[in-house]
Design goal:
Layout (H helix, E strand, L loop, with lengths): L8 E11 L4 E5 L5 E4 L2 H21 L3 H7 L5 E2 L21 E8 L3
Antiparallel strand pairs: 1-2, 1-4, 1-5, 2-3
Length: 109
């Protein structure tokens, strides 16, 4: 899980993980990264790491903001909520037995 600090820039991404015969396959829908793991937790950790690496590589070559704009991914600024966060409903086109969640991922300035 990524820790986002006050005032830090971030994006919201959707992670989908599906169990196969041999492993758990993971995909970040918005960024297009993919990974896998022997367990659900390992697949979740690996897909977040792969997504962070991809974002960092795009930043390093100066293409991050163009990439995000092209995919209509909005960069937000984190502010500590004054009240408990609300649960939000989101829909994902995935198999019914797939695990899906949204995660906040930091973005370099």
């Amino acid at each position: 899980m990524c820790k986002i600090r006050e005032g830090e820039k971030y994006i919201v991404v959707t992670m989908i993980i599906e169990e196969t015969e041999d492993a758990f396959e993971a995909e970040c829908i918005e960024i297009g990264t993919a990974s896998f793991g022997d367990t659900l937790d390992e697949a979740r950790k690996n897909i977040i790491e792969a997504t962070l690496c991809h974002i960092e590589a795009l930043h390093d070559i100066g293409e991050l903001h163009h990439f995000l704009k092209e995919r209509k991914i909005r960069v937000k600024t984190y502010h500590t909520p004054k009240t408990a966060p609300r649960r939000r409903h989101f829909e994902v086109n995935a198999r019914p037995d797939a695990w899906a969640s949204q995660s906040l991922v930091p973005v370099p300035a």
